[in-house]
């Protein structure tokens, strides 16, 4: 028989507590327990939630990086529970991205990072993202253009500029993530930046910045006068 939360006082049960007091009254573990729904013979859903958070060092950003395959390694977290949690975390990222984009006028590298980070910051593999701006530096379109391996991503400069023309965007910014967290640009990063800068000039498109993102921090080529 599964260890149940039903024997707890009603005000202590995550679902009932949420309905009575609202989402803000719940801890991270209690919110996660609602997604897990049921425990095992040994552990309640709340126990499993706490165990899952421990794997992520009790850091929601790290939790967001866990794949459903990694979650399933925890006894009591099957495929359905793992996929449910992964879907909820992705919805959170998309909400964050949408909220940021609603006021998405780029005034500097921090503004760009606030948009790029929920797009690719949690990816386990390197990925390239682009912001296409109008003349007033407002974001017209965003996209994740490519996914690479653990150490490199494919950058198609022609496709970036083609899409800029399709979106009638006179300005662009790009970013890619370093899953290792190391923000030091590689020689390849520098070469891509230089090539995109040169190609953009030929089409009269302003290449404003290239960000490297890792572990909620970033490196800006523009800020370092490398553009």
Description:
This protein has 9 helices and 5 strands. Strands 2-1-3-4-5 form a 5-stranded mixed beta sheet, with helices on both faces. α2 crosses α3 (45-55) and α6 (79-102) packs antiparallel against α7 (109-120). It is α+β, with helices and mostly antiparallel strands and 227 residues long. It has helices spanning 14-21, 28-36, 45-55, 60-65, 68-71, 79-102, 109-120, 157-166, 187-202, and strands spanning 127-133, 139-147, 171-177, 206-214, 217-220. The protein starts with 13 loop residues before the first helix and ends in a 7-residue tail after the last strand. 44% of the residues lie in helices and 16% in strands.
Brief characterization of the structure:
This protein is 44% helix and 16% strand.
Helix content: 40-55%
Question: In terms of per-residue confidence, which ranges show pLDDT below 50 for 5 or more consecutive residues?
Answer: none
Spatial arrangement of strands, main beta sheet = 2-1-3-4-5
Describe the sheet with the most strands. 5 strands, mixed
Instruction: Report, as a whole number of angstroms, the end-to-end distance.
Output: 63 Å
Strand content: 15-25%
Structural class by helix and strand composition: alpha+beta
Give a count of the beta strands, DSSP E runs of length 2 or more: 5
Number of helices: 9
Question: What value does the Rg take, in angstroms?
Answer: 21 Å
Q: Please, what is the average pLDDT?
A: 86
Mass-distribution shape: elongated
Q: List the helices and strands in order.
A: HHHHHHHEEHEHEE
